[in-house]
Amino acid sequence: MPYSIRTIAIVGSGYMGGGIAQIFAKAGFSVLIADQSAEVAAKAYDRLVEEARGFEERSLFPAGSAAAIEQNLSPALSVEDAVAAADLVIEAVFEDVAVKTAVLQQISAAARPTTIIGTNTSTISVNTLKAAVSHPERFMNIHFFNPAPFIPGAELVASDETEDSVVTAVVEVLRRAGKRPAVVGDTPGMVVNRIQYAMLSEAFRVVEEGVASMEAIDTLIRNSFGFRLGLVGPFSIVDQAGVDIYASCYGILEEAFGERMATPESLTTAVSDGVKGTKVGRGLLGDYGDEDLAAMREYRDRAYVQMALLQDELGTPPGAGDHHPTA
Fold first, then answer.
1. Which of 39, 92, 117, 181 has its CA 20 to 30 A from that of 32?
2. Peptide bond before 325: cis, by omega within 30 degrees of 0?
């Protein structure tokens, strides 16, 4: 069935829930925010409006954003009142299965059967939580990233019962709110945290082995592959550098570190099939013509220059401190 989303309820008015409420209210949606009591919700409303004014004064929000949030956001008297009026409800409470289950049951009991219900979870399987919701075909994970008002990505996970039309509606509403969502499969940690934690595990190993300090690692990552990843995805980087080059490097790492650095089977297969990246016009992401390559290089070079200028403008992150190697 087609869905029309005009009114959104956010259940949980803390840091994440409040940020999510700001996103949609700023974009012009009618937003209700609910918490354990009307008093908590009212205090959250005051905080979020005042916070938005501060963001606007610091040019972090466009002019008029605070007024839009003040006008479009309302504190609800109860979870039930917020949910009853909503076309979309997003639960944003503590990351605990029991807590989320109880709140989702409360939401489900008060919501219309056609109301889309989303959970904001970074680690819990959507198929674990769906049992808390009646009509699970209208339920999915809508995972925002912290801080929600400023990080454009959103990770969407459907359960094995979620209707395609629900996913389509959520993608559309997020895009209308200025987000850049991607739909992924249901797995513990989903996509972002699986990749992020794999990187972090290796970073900790490097520190524990005495190879580099935390400060040195932060400096290097911010100014090397982390610098690139703000603009270009990992598979695009592999295509540009050479698929066969990455396969060769994996061989060296696998010899040194064993299974955890084993060459991915799909990478080996790609190289065997002649997929070597932009240099031959065939990459992991598809074929590249001359015009594609010219446009890619122009974007990449301009993007990297702009990123470097932004780094210079902002300076070193407070508390980080660029690593200065000893002689």
1. 181
2. no
* Per-residue pLDDT, 327: 40
Structural domain includes residue 206: no
Domain that holds residue 56: 7-190
User: Do you know the residue count of the chain?
Assistant: 327
Burial 98-107, CB ≥16 within 10 A → b, else e: eebbebbebb
Q: What is the pLDDT of residues 126-151, one digit of tens each?
A: 999 999 999 999 999 999 999 999 99
Tokens of 170: 């959520």
By CB atoms closer than 10 A (0-12, 13-18, 19+), residue 6 is exposed
Q: What is the DSSP string of 85-108?
A: T-SEEEE---S-HHHHHHHHHHHH
DSSP state of 142: E
Cα separation of 308 and 303, whole Å? 9
CATH of the domain at 216: 1.10.1040.10
In a domain, 86, yes or no: yes
